[in-house]
């Protein structure tokens, strides 16, 4: 399958560069992967579109202020994006510089905080040391919210709250699990009142989520690595849901990747560690019966994942319907509620 099979043309004005005034004011497109049927809703209608006994699986990661600015000893400007905190005083980072620094090179960040480059990794990242203060202390002092590249504006004070989910509590992500941005405490309460349960997994979203697929043959794409945890409590919640005939509804592609990564040995089991799972058409889902997701970039791994779930043609037709109806796209944009094509579900799940 080719990268260009997942292309679509998006008018620039449909890219949501700011969030709406109210989280739950977003629109919601419902897509049935069985026949490609589409219907249009408000996100506030989500409780009506689910059923008592369903289970929502949320990603409870929290975005850290991972983007910092500074300069090299030569005076050259540096933009640093922390990909992962390795230990209290070391991190893996992306560096945007005019010239690649050598090991031992020093960067001075805003506020006078020093960073020493230790090595350039094969993945194109840099391992760096924070000799004066621990990484999170520095980020909390001078870091900026790491808005994605298509939100082509500086971060603002409002982003500190709106680029977080209301339930995010485990710091470590450098990109938001954006399907969760639409949920409010009021909607969570209404879902619970209707008998729709919830559980949480953790996947610390990396900057690689925006990495383009460069190979035309998508099977040659090397997926970025992310850390996740699926605990026994989540496994038990999924098991109970299946036993009572309910549906497991993953909130976001990150929750999908967490559940499916923890299901690679067959049934869902507790798991903590790294994943490079790449889901594209032909994949059979073991742990997910529906998903809430935002609209994704053309030719991205995320639109490939949704296409694996509901069928490429149905997804691209739904995207065109969203464009025609002037939906808002990407991280601060509108959402979809997606149900699978029957062939996307693993036989042991659908049986």
TrEMBL record:
One of its GO terms (molecular function) is S-adenosylmethionine:tRNA ribosyltransferase-isomerase activity. The keyword Nucleus does not apply. GO terms for cellular component: cytoplasm. Keywords: Cytoplasm, Isomerase, Queuosine biosynthesis, S-adenosyl-L-methionine, Transferase. InterPro entries: QueA, QueA_dom1, QueA_dom2, QueA_sf. Pathway: tRNA modification; tRNA-queuosine biosynthesis. It is an enzyme of class 2 (transferase). It holds the Pfam family Queuosine_synth. SUPFAM superfamilies: QueA-like. It catalyses: 7-aminomethyl-7-carbaguanosine(34) in tRNA + S-adenosyl-L-methionine = epoxyqueuosine(34) in tRNA + adenine + L-methionine + 2 H(+). GO terms for biological process: tRNA queuosine(34) biosynthetic process. Its main location: cytoplasm. Monomer. Transfers and isomerizes the ribose moiety from AdoMet to the 7-aminomethyl group of 7-deazaguanine (preQ1-tRNA) to give epoxyqueuosine (oQ-tRNA). Belongs to the QueA family. NCBIfam families: PRK00147.1, queA. This is S-adenosylmethionine:tRNA ribosyltransferase-isomerase.
